[in-house]
Design a protein that fits this description.
The protein is of the alpha+beta class and about 375 residues long. It folds into three domains: about 1-130, Rossmann fold; about 145-240, no CATH class; about 255-380, Dynein light chain 2a, cytoplasmic (Beta-Lactamase, 2-Layer Sandwich). Helix content is about 40%, strand content about 20%. The chain has twelve helices and 16 strands. It has helices at about 10-20, 35-45, 60-70, 85-90, 105-120, 130-140, 175-185, 210-220, 230-240, 255-270, 300-320, 365-380, and strands at about 1-5, 30-35, 50-55, 75-80, 100, 125-130, 145-150, 160-165, 165-170, 175, 190-195, 275-285, 290-295, 330, 340-345, 355-360. Strands 1, 2, 3, 4, 5 and 6 form a six-stranded mixed sheet that branches. It has a five-stranded antiparallel sheet with strand order 10-9-8-7-11. A five-stranded antiparallel sheet has the order 13-12-16-15-14, sandwiched between helices. The chain is globular. The protein starts with a strand and ends with a helix. The model is unreliable at about 90-100, about 120-125, about 225-245 and about 255-260 (pLDDT under 50).
């Protein structure tokens, strides 16, 4: 009997699917995993005919799982579950790139997709393996920030960087930006590997939206052949131009980073002068710490920024699930006489978020009103 593996970190939803699919036990057996690592362990120990996976999971998320599956099990049919449909992206992409089931969906819809995949039919929601354009489509829909290495036999490795699902920069041999991205997306039978995101700010050098970029690359795929030198020299040129000495993709300017860091530190310092403010951290759209000021509070701003980034992302996910318009603010009131924490976006057109630590006993509503106004003044918004 065929085994169907479902990878989903929400235990109640996973149990619900497992129970609902029991009526199809005469056609397939359901195996489960709570994250990508568990899913890989199942794939290595058992024969699996169809993989059904969520994208947002702890330890190893669905994107990393898909990159491993693409390399090790390229013929395995995949059904992707996603909670964040992006109609504006979906409408512009070729229909054959759509490879997911949007939550919430009925168990019958999932069962039909599984049965069709087992029959090697091609329903909406199931693909045999996953193509790079489909993979990038999922990154856009899930608004993921990531750095990817894309490799193809006989070609130098390419680098793609995304911030919150938006294509920012790319490197391919001597090419950078949009031209490099088109080459990378057009690679044949690519392998996908995630790299550690760059520690410094990345300047956006790709002007097109993800949807247009994928369509342009698809159209151009048959119209040109690479003009790079082959073999080891090509690989050397790619990594030499694309990476710094420490192995980090050279997608940013040191001067720009130093200038931005100083500006953000000044913004944090200026805001921390407000009465009742203990410390301020400045985060960019990807949740990275760009500047901070803690004075003599002794607060670990780097650790705070990391924890706050996770909370901000969670609040944004809740807002999207409820179709709530506008920017999301976050306020955390801690027990006892501990300070409170707030995350406040800086203006409508800025991708910066300020994380502020309020002293115990401060009038929170009045303080945050003044804080927003002061932040707008200092940021020039």
């Amino acid at each position: 009997m065929d085994n169907v593996l479902i990878a989903e970190d929400e235990s109640r939803f996973l149990y619900f699917l497992e129970e609902a699919l029991e009526e199809f036990s005469d056609r397939f057996r359901v195996l489960t995993a709570g994250n990508g690592l568990e899913a890989l362990a199942v794939l290595e120990s058992k024969s699996v005919s169809v993989l059904v996976t969520d994208l947002n999971m702890p330890r190893m998320d669905g994107f990393t799982l898909l990159s491993h599956v693409n390399e090790r099990y390229p013929d395995l049919p995949i059904i992707v579950m996603t909670g964040y449909d992006r109609p504006e992206i979906r409408a512009k992409l070729p229909k054959d790139l759509v490879s997911f089931l949007e939550k919430p969906f009925s168990p019958d819809k999932l069962a039909n997709a599984i049965i069709a995949a087992l029959a090697r039919d091609a329903p909406e929601g199931a693909v045999k393996g996953i193509s790079l354009p489909s993979f990038l489509q999922l990154i856009g829909m899930e608004q993921k920030t990531c750095l990817m290495e894309v490799s193809s036999k006989g070609q130098p490795p390419g680098i793609l960087y995304f911030e919150k699902g938006v294509p920012f920069d790319a490197v391919f041999g001597p090419l950078t930006g949009q031209e490099a991205a088109l080459k990378v997306i057009g690679l044949e039978n690519p392998g996908i590997k995630f790299l550690k995101p760059p520690s410094k700010k990345v300047k956006r050098r790709i002007s097109s939206s993800l949807a247009n970029l994928v369509m342009d690359a698809t159209r151009a795929k048959d119209e040109f052949e690479t003009d790079l030198v082959g073999g080891d020299e090509a690989v050397s040129r790619s990594w030499g131009n694309g990476l710094s000495e420490g192995g980090e993709p050279d997608l940013f300017s040191e001067d720009e980073q130093d200038e931005d860091s100083g500006t953000h530190d000044e913004l944090a310092r200026g805001l921390s002068e407000m009465a009742g403010c203990l410390a301020v951290a400045v985060l960019d759209g990807s949740g990275s710490l760009k500047g901070s000021f803690a004075g003599d509070s002794g607060i670990d701003m780097k650790g705070l920024a990391s924890a706050a980034s996770d909370c901000i992302m969670a609040s944004q996910n809740v807002a999207r699930a409820l179709n709530a318009p506008g920017e999301t603010e976050l306020f955390i009131r801690l027990p006892g006489d501990f300070p409170a924490v707030a995350a406040v976006p800086v203006g409508r057109d800025s991708d910066l978020t300020l994380v502020v630590i309020l002293a115990f006993g401060v009038d929170e509503k009045a303080f945050l009103g003044q804080f927003r106004a002061r932040a707008g003044e200092l940021a020039g918004l």
